[in-house]
Amino acid sequence: MPTPIITDGTMERVVSAPRVVLPDPATLFAERAARFAQLARGHAMGEYLELMAALVRAQHAAVGRRAALPVSAAALEQSRDYGMPPLSALSHARDPQWRADLADLAAELAGEPRAAAAVAALRALDDGALEAQADRVLSGQTLDADAALVPFIGAALQVYFTRAAAALDVDMVKNFDVPTVCPVCATRPVASIVRVGGDRNNLRYLACALCNTEWNMARIKCSACEEDKGVHYLALQDAAAEASTAAAVNAVGAAAACKAEACDECKSYLKIFYQEKDAYVDVQADDLASLGLDLLVDEQGFGRSGPNLLFHPGG
Asked: Using an 8 Å Cβ cutoff, are 75 and 87 in contact?
């Protein structure tokens, strides 16, 4: 029997499905690091993916070292009463705790030769320069000169915001009604994923690039402009060729675990991953391991709508 496709996203059809799923820092980074290490083997970007595996392992070590700081009563009230994200990345009064997380990441990677230059550069920056870097990462305005530091700044911010998101009461954020950004921190998604099993089976969730919260959105709908007309899917013709990126894209790629969901209305795209095709797929790791698809979709005139904070795409 074919798996039914839920296209309207309403909880009336799947009453037990959660609208918002907060991150679990106890397992999230450890599992992501393992996926990065798995994907690195034999990949053209293997060295970079191995470095990201080490960085994410450092995130796992750092996230449990500190307790989440309390969210202000005003932010919680606005979230409860008006559906405002309580940790909005661009307006949240960021605590210096994130810089302590960054210092932990640098210390964990001090013995990693591939990170040596970046760690030295980070340690040479004063607090003001680090905060300026963080502002650029969160606003999507990173400079080419920032490129080597972006993954480390982004990783520290992920630790800080993921820890904070996990400490929230999910009932405080489930009424947020802007489906194109995260209900916790108002950041764009890195990708979407169609889950398998349990009460989320066959439902599409957008995955926040920053705090790792997931939220439900109807399938076959643009995650940037919410249009459903003109949405189509592109995939590498030969998924195995991703290791060398020597591939072309086709219009469907029905068997692919990774596709680009492209929208003719707003000319944007975002990747969508299918857990039924690969049980261990991870939105951040698999996104970076499939940059060949980004390059080819970009050549067809579509612009990516969400960031991956572990990578600076360049200008």
From this structure: yes
- The pTM score is 0.90
pLDDT bracket for residue 78 (50, 70, 90): confident
Is the sign of the CA dihedral 193, 198, 201, 204 positive or negative? negative
Q: CB neighbours of 290 closer than 8 A, spacing ≥ 6?
A: 236, 242, 258, 271
* List of residues 6+ apart from 32 with CB closer than 8 A: 56, 59, 282, 284, 285
Residue with tokens 């996203």: 9
Locate 158 and state its tokens.
């992920």
- Distance from C-alpha of 282 to C-alpha of 271, rounded to nearest angstrom: 12
Instruction: Tell me, letter by letter, the H, E, C secondary structure of the chain.
Output: CCCCCCCCCCCCCCCCCCCEECCCHHHHHHHHHHHHHHHHCCCCCHHHHHHHHHHHHHHHHHHCCCCCCCCCHHHHHHHHHHCCCCCCCCCCCCCCHHHHHHHHHHHHCCCCHHHHHHHHHHHHCCHHHHHHHHHHHHHCCCCHHHCCCHHHHHHHHHHHHHHHHHCCCHHHCCCCCCCCCCCCCCCCEEEEEECCCHHHCCCEEEEECCCCCEEECCCCCCCCCCCCCCEEEEEECCHHHHHCCCCCEECCCCCCCEEEEEECCCCEEEEEEECCCCCCCCHHHHHHHCHHHHHHHHHCCCEECCCCCCCCCCC
162-214 residue pLDDT tens = 999 999 999 989 888 899 999 999 999 999 999 998 899 999 999 999 999 99
Cα distances from 204 to residues 6, 9, 58, 196, 219, in angstroms, run: 9, 8, 29, 10, 6
Name the packing angle between helices 150-166 and 97-108 (round to 10°): 120
